Every structure is written in structure tokens, then in C-alpha cells.
């Protein structure tokens, strides 16, 4: 991967990206759908032509997905232990009736509010573990990490070859500027949501 930007150039690009504002008030949610072609599924983007699934459909699917793991007690007898696997790793899901979050104590979904609005962001996902030169520093990218794509532009290297540059941001971390390499990075859309929580 090419790296020919000076520290001053990188700082300027980062400053422009930050001036656009980092959308930290939006939450990552999973949107639930139930169509004949796919069955019940959860995705990270809103599908305009489909309506959200009902929470009752989600609960029915979870009941069907209860699995039994066989264990032996102290006497050597087999016992059945019921476990559930919530959608979105227990995070917020969006259904027809609103937003729900998994309550692990009672092992069920609890209504937590309504969506106020959504915003679509481009996310950069790291495909491989790599170490990149970044000025005087090295940047470690870990497979599976995701960053917000704040900005992208074309930079011409010392051989006048165009290079697509990404300005990437991650929560609680400073933005970084890196050349795009499709063997290391991939781009996906994700719809984040602002939720109206009920007053306590």
C-alpha cells in the first residue's frame, strides 16, 4: 500500500473530516424483517420496500430456536439446559412496534422506545490483520474491525499515479488517513438510528 502523504497533509484532511461532525448520538441497531423469500432476518440497513417484522414474530422464532445442551449432573444423569440466542448479540432491534433490547435476566425482549430518524453511514471493514506505515507511526488494523468512512478523495503519488485515500474514524480513536486496498478493506452501508426513549 502506498503512503506518500506528509504529516501536515494528513492533519489537514483529518481537520476537514472532523469539521463535518462525528455522529455519536446515533445507535447501532438491527432492523428485523420477515419475508417469504428470506424468512425472519435481521439486517443493518433499512429496506424501503419491506415492512418491519412484528416483535411477536421475533419471539416466536426465538422459541423455535431454543436448543438443548446435554450435561451430566453429579449423579451422572443427563439434564436439559435451555438457552436462547438473541438477535444482534442482545443489542437493540427494530420491529413494527418500535425498538427492543434483550433483557438477559428474564431472557426476553423489552420495549425501549421508538425510532426518531436514521442516518446511513459508510463503514469500512478490515479483512486482514495488517501493519501499515503512517508517517512516523505504525497502525495496526485487526481483522473484523470497523471504522466510519468520514471522507475519501484521490491523491497523486510521486509517480503521478492516482491513489484513493480514506479518512477513517472509530469511536474513542483519532481519525486516520489510509490508501484504499481492496484486499485489506471493504465498504458497506449501515443505517444508524436515533431512539426516543420513554421518560422515567
What does this structure look like?
It is a single chain. By secondary structure, the chain is mostly beta strands. The chain has two domains: 7-20 and 121-191; 30-118, no CATH class. The protein contains two helices and 13 strands; from the N terminus they run αββαβββββββββββ. The chain has helices at residues 7-19, 55-64; strands at residues 30-35, 39-43, 67-72, 78-83, 93-95, 98-103, 108-126, 130-134, 137-141, 146-156, 162-170, 173-179, 185-196. Strands 1, 2, 5, 6, 7, 10, 11, 12 and 13 form a nine-stranded mixed sheet that branches. Strands 3-4 form a two-stranded antiparallel sheet. A hairpin with a 2-residue loop joins strand 11 (162-170) and strand 12 (173-179). It is elongated, with a radius of gyration of 22 Å.
Write the layout of secondary structure elements.
Blueprint: H1 7-19, E1 30-35, E2 39-43, H2 55-64, E3 67-72, E4 78-83, E5 93-95, E6 98-103, E7 108-126, E8 130-134, E9 137-141, E10 146-156, E11 162-170, E12 173-179, E13 185-196
Parallel strand pairs: 1-5
Antiparallel strand pairs: 1-2, 3-4, 5-6, 6-7, 7-10, 7-13, 8-9, 10-11, 11-12
Structural class: mainly beta
Quaternary organization: single chain
N-to-C SSE string, H for helix and E for strand = HEEHEEEEEEEEEEE
Which percent band covers the strand fraction?
over 45%
Radius of gyration: 22 Å
Distance between the termini: 52 Å
Low-confidence stretches: 1-7, 10-14, 16-24, 68-73
Count of discrete alpha- or pi-helical segments spanning 4 or more residues: 2
Largest sheet features: 9 strands, mixed
User: What shape does the CA trace take?
Assistant: elongated
Specify the helix fraction band. 10-25%
Averaged pLDDT? 78
Counted beta strands: 13
Number of domains: 2
Amino acid at each position: 500500500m502506498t503512503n506518500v502523504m506528509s504529516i501536515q497533509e494528513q492533519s489537514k484532511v483529518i481537520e476537514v473530516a472532523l469539521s463535518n461532525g462525528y455522529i455519536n448520538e446515533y445507535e447501532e441497531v438491527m432492523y428485523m424483517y420477515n419475508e417469504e423469500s428470506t424468512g425472519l432476518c435481521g439486517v443493518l440497513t433499512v429496506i424501503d420496500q419491506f415492512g418491519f417484522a412484528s416483535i411477536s414474530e421475533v419471539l416466536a422464532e426465538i422459541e423455535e430456536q431454543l436448543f438443548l445442551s446435554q450435561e451430566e449432573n453429579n449423579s451422572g444423569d443427563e439434564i436439559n439446559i435451555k438457552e436462547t440466542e438473541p438477535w444482534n448479540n442482545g443489542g437493540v432491534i427494530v420491529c413494527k412496534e418500535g425498538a427492543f433490547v434483550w433483557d438477559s435476566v428474564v431472557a426476553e425482549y423489552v420495549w425501549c422506545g421508538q425510532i426518531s430518524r436514521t442516518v446511513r453511514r459508510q463503514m469500512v471493514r478490515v479483512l486482514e490483520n495488517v501493519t501499515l506505515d503512517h508517517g512516523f507511526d505504525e497502525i495496526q488494523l485487526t481483522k473484523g474491525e470497523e471504522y466510519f468512512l468520514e471522507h475519501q478523495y484521490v491523491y497523486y503519488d510521486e509517480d503521478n499515479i492516482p491513489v484513493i485515500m480514506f479518512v477513517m474514524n472509530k469511536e474513542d480513536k483519532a481519525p486516520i488517513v489510509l490508501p484504499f486496498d481492496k484486499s485489506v478493506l471493504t465498504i458497506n452501508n449501515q443505517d444508524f438510528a436515533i431512539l426516543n426513549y420513554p421518560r422515567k
